[in-house]
Automatic annotation (TrEMBL):
A cellular component annotation (GO) from this entry: phosphatidylinositol 3-kinase complex, class IB
Name of the gene this protein is made from: PIK3R6
Coiled coil regions, renumbered to chain: none
Name by which UniProt lists this protein: Phosphoinositide-3-kinase regulatory subunit 6
GO molecular function: 1-phosphatidylinositol-3-kinase regulator activity; 1-phosphatidylinositol-4,5-bisphosphate 3-kinase activity
GO annotation (BP), single: positive regulation of T cell differentiation
Length: 759
């Protein structure tokens, strides 16, 4: 007994040290730990994954630290500890009901705190209430959705789309990530996932009365048809009990005991009730499979929409995307042109040629659209007069936002309103996010024409910065990693888990490649990706800006584009030709820069419109949509560029390098000074025939030359033709619209983090 108590205290002491290491990293009190940033959370979860018996001790330690943080009002550690605790509770079995009740009570107390603490606590409380009533529900639903296991009572599906642009991320990084995904998916067959679900549900419900070793052996020996029968029986028992308003634990245990006895036999079941497993016979823990992740090479902005359509109506059951064939895993002769050609669409462009999914019922919009054919002439499409965008696209940000009905008469399960969830995870720098913003805008614009994805799909966006390894960290944050640096300042857990992942990815890419996917690989990067897409449920919304560009050639039509992080203006050396212009006299020094006429609406906290027009000479101009590191990050849903927490006031930070002329005895000289101001929209025009060059989101592919004028404003939410016609009909009949209704809503792009913006 003494040795057992001593070993238990040693285990708790080891877990306590690991938790303290995580807390020190969050508090930035241990500079020596910076080399291991991001590893402490991973190693802590690995300890309980290798030895499930440590889970109750870890839950107690995390609860104790959370209650201490609540007493001492150290809020910056609450959300990271709460996410760590919920991840353990989802995977573990044998957690006493008393610990579930204490965690639930703690989450309910957090509801009095401001956002984002109350939002994270609400999500945890809802999940804990279900898990306490029916143990094993969270694990079962997570595996079913992520692995697309077919059943009737929980038909929700999830998929993670990993997008990598080969122009921004090196081929070695692409190949290394692909190999790690392949190695994990080789071991996650549907049969293995069904065995995990059955075993976890029975162990979570029966506890020590379940002979885990005999159960897993029996499941391993069961054929596919028998395994499916037990899987559906367990899912039915758990989901029916979870859907009841006041579930009965006794009745639930009786149903699962019948399934358990049928699996292992009455003799083994009786032995398990008497003594349970011995320590020597106890099997390894039940793993939580990583999500179904598909790897995609980013080729164009339409690819995102195409992949989402194929997710809803898949053409095949391939585990990996077809464009992976273009990757040379040995690093020999990687041909990116072939990679791009391999993902081109091969359909005819007619919607009826797209095969229908198995979950498309008769009479559904997909069945009706399948009857459309391409005919000659112009075909007018009748739009219902009251069709509007579903509230999920532009509703108030929140964790449990209702986003349309999946089918029929309402939600299938409380708190879940859509059948499918697409988690789009992009790797790269600010340039990749700029391209993602264009794809997101294109997708939203396409959805105003026909609702193909909106009613059935919840779209979640995630971002992992992968920056050039040869640049120092300071210059990377100021150059191509500004948005990642902002996310790290807004969410300390994002900084600790995600922003520190970039060195590990480059380290993995330097390792020798192996085509043997049966070998066990280091799961660190895949585990971090999995943890991010599972626990990162708090979005930070970023304003997308539209820019209209006018060129010196009057025959060239103006161009409209968008940007997310930055618009940079440079002065070209050449002038555009002007009739009657005399040549410049020799010996006269040319003044640097160009004369610019700047008209903007000054950003005021009072929201009153104040137009400002100024003419000045400048050598450069930068418009940034992100605040710098000296600006306080505030606001529960999206950033506010001012120190005050004004959550609905977004603006551009404009920096102008102005030329100052000075005259003295030595002659005329010039100096420069940088002026900054904030604005919601701006128009800039060159007045002395100097041409401008615009660069959007630091992307060389999105550079516009020979520009004489451009206009920048917040990108409005795309609206359907029905909405436009309705507004014009009201105005034509003399009915005045309120200013709040007449003003178009801005288009915000959400990027999921763990906490949102921590105040």
């Amino acid at each position: 007994m003494e040795s057992s108590g001593r070993s238990r205290s040693d285990v708790e002491l080891d877990l306590q040290r690991s938790v303290q290491a995580v807390l020190r990293e969050l508090s930035a009190q241990a500079p020596a730990l910076q080399s291991n940033q991001g590893m402490w959370r991973w190693s802590l979860h690995k300890k309980v994954e290798r030895d499930p018996g440590k889970s109750p001790a870890l839950v107690r330690i995390l609860l104790r630290e959370l209650e201490k943080a609540e007493r001492e009002d150290t809020r910056h550690v609450i959300i990271p500890l709460l996410h760590t605790l919920m991840y353990v509770l989802t995977k573990a079995t044998g957690i006493p009901e008393e610990l579930h009740q204490r965690t639930y009570a703690f989450c309910t107390r957090l509801l009095t705190l401001p956002a984002p603490y109350c939002m994270v606590a609400l999500d945890c409380a809802i999940r804990l209430k279900t898990e306490t009533a029916v143990p094993g529900t969270l694990y079962q639903r997570l595996v079913i959705a992520e692995q697309n296991l077919a059943n009737e009572l929980y038909p929700y599906r999830e998929r993670v789309f990993l997008f990598v642009d080969p122009e921004l991320v090196s081929p070695s990084v692409c190949s290394a990530l692909l190999l790690e995904l392949q190695a994990a998916q080789e071991q996650q067959t549907p049969e293995a996932c069904m065995r995990h679900v059955v075993s976890h549900a029975l162990q979570a419900a029966l506890g020590e009365a379940c002979h885990a070793g005999a159960l897993q052996k029996r499941l391993q020996a069961s054929p596919r048809r028998t395994l499916e029968r037990y899987f559906h029986a367990v899912v039915t028992a758990v989901e029916q009990m979870a859907s009841e308003p006041s579930p009965s634990r006794e009745g639930h245990l009786e149903r699962l005991e019948e399934i358990y006895c049928s699996l292992v036999g009455p003799a083994v079941a009786a032995r398990g009730r008497v003594g349970g497993d011995s320590l020597q016979d106890r099997p390894p823990s039940i793993p939580l499979p990583s999500p179904y992740i598909t790897f995609h090479l980013w080729t164009d902005e339409e690819q995102l929409w195409k992949e989402l359509v194929l997710f809803l109506r898949p053409r095949s059951q391939l585990r990996l995307s077809a464009d992976l064939e273009a990757l040379d895993l040995q690093g020999l002769g990687l041909d990116w042109e072939m990679a791009r050609a391999s993902v081109l669409s091969t359909d005819s462009g007619i919607e009826r040629d797209l095969p229908l999914g198995a979950d498309d019922p008769p009479g559904s919009p997909e069945m009706e659209r399948a009857g459309l054919q391409r005919k000659g002439g112009i075909k007018k499409r009748l739009w219902p007069p009251n069709i509007l965008m579903p509230s999920g696209w532009d509703g108030p940000p929140g964790l449990h936002r209702r986003t349309g009905q999946p089918s029929g008469d309402g939600e299938l399960l409380p708190g879940v309103s859509r059948l499918h969830t697409a988690r789009v995870l992009v790797l790269g720098d600010d340039r990749m996010l700029g391209r993602l913003a264009r794809a997101y805008h294109s997708l939203r614009k396409r959805e105003t024409q026909k609702f193909c994805l909106t009613p059935r799909l919840s779209l979640q966006l995630y971002y992992i910065p992968v920056l050039a390894p040869e640049k120092p960290m300071a210059s990377r944050h100021s150059d191509l990693g500004e948005l990642a640096a902002f996310l790290g300042r807004a969410d300390p857990w994002f900084e600790s888990i995600i922003n520190t992942l970039c060195p590990a990815i480059h380290k993995l890419a330097k390792m020798p490649l192996s085509l043997d996917t049966s070998q066990t690989v280091d799961p660190f990067i895949l585990d971090v990706l999995t943890y991010y897409v599972r626990m990162g449920a708090q979005p930070i919304y970023f304003q997308i800006y539209t820019v209209k560009i006018f060129f010196s050639d009057s025959s060239q039509d103006p161009v409209e584009d968008i940007f997310l992080t930055e618009l940079k203006v440079k002065i070209q050396d050449s002038r555009f030709p002007k009739e009657g212009c005399s040549p410049r006299r020799r010996g006269v020094a040319e003044v640097p820069g160009a004369e610019l006429l700047i008209c903007y609406q000054k950003a005021l906290l009072s929201h009153r419109a104040r137009e400002v027009t100024v003419s000045l000479r400048a050598t450069a101009l930068v418009l940034k949509a992100l605040p710098d590191s000296n600006t306080e990050v505030s606001g529960p849903t999206h950033w506010s560029p001012t120190a005050a927490p004004v959550t609905d006031h977004m603006c551009l930070n404009v920096s102008v390098t102005e030329v100052i002329k000075t005259s003295n005895l030595a002659g005329r000289s010039f100096s420069t000074v940088t002026n900054t101001f904030r604005t919601a929209d701006i128009q800039i025009q060159s007045q002395d025939q100097k041409l401008l060059t615009l660069s959007l989101d630091k992307d060389s592919q999105r550079t516009f030359k020979d520009v004489v004028r451009f206009e920048v404003a917040p990108c409005p939410e795309p609206c359907s033709r029905a909405q436009k016609s309705k507004a014009s009909w009201l105005s034509s009949h003399g009915q005045e619209l309120e200013r709040t209704q007449a003003k178009a809503k801005p288009l915000l792009m959400p990027i999921n983090t763990f906490s949102g913006i921590v105040q």
